[in-house]
Amino acid sequence: MTEQPLKLPLANPRMEVSKGKRELGLYDGTRLLRTYHVGLGFSPVEDKVREGDGRTPEGEYYVCVKNANSKFYLSLGISYPNIEDANRGLHDELITKRQHDQIADAIAAGKRPPWDTKLGGEIFIHGNGSSNDWTWGCVAVEDAEIKELFDAVPMGTRVRIVH
Length: 163
Hints:
By secondary structure, the chain is an alpha+beta fold.
């Protein structure tokens, strides 16, 4: 049975990714509209710590980039690292105080945080398939699903990623 098309625009869109369940839920307010199977980073169990660790981050983020020219069909960039990631990175001496403040300023302004620190960046929800955990930390769905998400969610949409 084919699902009905989403009625757009959504009043209060948000997404929640459950790493353990390998699911992404699209919500309008509290109402669950769709559930998508996802592929994660190649080391999916733990929280992301640094660039290249293959882990998908956990926390509260928002869509900060919409890329219609993605090499993975379409993609929605999320605001990783957030302030909690930056605080941890500063404490663990992975980033400088200046980098921490640049991340904090970007998050406070609802912009894209710096993606060129040792914490990593460029975490996207993108297409190219969800059959296994193959990304460097991104959340992958099927191409038709990222098309639906890309059309449904505006910049600033909240994205919560939980274990």
